[in-house]
Amino acid sequence: MSFIIEMLNITKDFPGIRANDNVTLQVEKGSIHALLGENGAGKSTLMSILFGLYEPDAGSIRVRGEPVIINNPNIATQLGIGMVHQHFKLVHNFTVTENIILGLEPRQGLSIDIKKASLKVAELSKLYSLDVDPFSKIEDISVGMHQRVEILKMLYRDAEILIFDEPTAVLTPQEIHELMAVMRRLVEEGKTILLITHKLKEIKAVADICTVLRRGKLINTVEVKNTDEAAMAEMMVGREVSFSVDKSPAKPGEVVLEIEKLNVKNSKGLLAVKDLSLSVKKGEILGLCGIDGNGQTELIQALTGLTKIESGSVKILGKEVASLPVRQRLDMGLGHIPEDRHRHGLVLDFRLDENLVMHSYGHLPYAHYGVLDFYAIRKNAERLIKEFDVRAGQGPDTLARSMSGGNQQKAILAREIDRSPEAFIIAQPTRGLDVGAIEYIHKRIVAERDKNKAILLVSLELDEILNVSDRIAVIYDGMIVGIVDTDKTDEYELGLMMSGSLRKAV
Ligand SMILES: Nc1ncnc2c1ncn2[C@@H]1O[C@H](COP(=O)(O)OP(=O)(O)O)[C@@H](O)[C@H]1O
Ligand SMILES: [Mg+2]
Predict the structure, then answer these.
(1) What pLDDT is attached to residue 106?
(2) Could you give the 3-state DSSP secondary structure of residue 7?
(3) Number of helices and strands in the chain (H, E)
(4) Closest by CA position to 35, among listed 186, 216, 173, 266
(5) Is the pLDDT of residue 118 over 80?
(6) CA of 35, nearest ligand number
(7) Closest ligand 1 atom number to CA of residue 42
(8) Which residue segments constitute the domains of the chain, with CATH numbers given?
(9) pTM for the complete prediction?
């Protein structure tokens, strides 16, 4: 057996935390090797060590059997190791080719280099069926394409060992499917892949070997074909995990959120939500599913007051709110768990305690006559951190930016649930989170329903919609094309509605 990569007994400390604790990882040439673990398990740290971004405090690395010291990314590149990071690093007003050659030797006149480079990019794109146009500008192509540009960047530098850090977190189901095919193609051409993920389905679909980390420690390395999702989940979380959500049938009451003939334009000035009507009752979760880009984002923004509406009505408990500003809607009983945690959910450079009073800091008990009461703000944070199991290294003082995605999401959930709104707009609540956090968040959403709140759950994850919702509405091209009871439908029927080929009585 030949290992192309061996990381032996690696330990890495950060202030206050051992991110990797005596971890050994051996990767066979030509395999897809998954690195599985919850948020904060130490996956990115281990791969950053391999890529030369951090130096380990203890342990050694061998590449192709040779002992190496990788103390910067250039050395990793020379060794044929490439990494696609969680957040892409592309220059938006540059072309694909310009981005790919950025940082490489600009020896000849730039124009000649670019011509040659774009030919090579086109060739690589063809070889791996990436379908990337070397001359497109980054700002004009999709997120899925951005990722392919990052892949090409590695291939252009002749990388043989490709590290993908949570590559599917930013992709649609369709794009995920395509990425899996690209990975298989890469391996066929002799590459080796290290795939960081916490999605078990993806590991089952594409990986050969899986190494599980938990809280910095190596738990096990297993052959994927000899294990199942439940076993991997248990290794990852350290206990049994339930994939289905425990809930009793809904007992819906009066209508809380009523949307009538709503029309909303998108940023290009085109109608994105068309004559849309929906109502959500007390004590029910209405799931809204659809393929990304069918008006979901515009609908959420219009409901929460982030975008103005063209026409139509939005009522909370019978009161019209369509023309009210965000804050007044919140005060009238609207809660919002936003789609984009970073843009609308948290202020990343603020502390956790400040983020936890973001919507209520103007009121008692957090302010008296306009003066903030830091003691009350801190007490509030301590209470919510405990109740919602938010893991933050420095407690209330932790900067939001330094928290993991799952814990940022728990913080938003804590803040919004604690305000106890009557109607909740919850968008993509578990995007990019691990199974443990997903399970927790689903439970809390159902618990809010059982406190008689009205919940509109917008998600691109069909599994999530089917597991959590009581009724499901399907949006296609800005319109509701069907509303069905969850126990009377399935993935197949929803898929047909989502693609616009089936309508069911609305
Ligand atoms: N640069 C850093 N400084 C301090 N702590 C860090 C740093 N990078 C990661 N950590 C901490 O190390 C632990 C492991 O993080 P990480 O490797 O990013 O986990 P994963 O990728 O599995 O989510 C976490 O507790 C994280 O907060
Ligand atoms: Mg990570």
Answers:
(1) 58
(2) strand
(3) 16, 22
(4) 216
(5) yes
(6) 1
(7) 17
(8) 3-237 (3.40.50.300), 246-333+421-506 (3.40.50.300), 340-420 (no CATH)
(9) 0.70
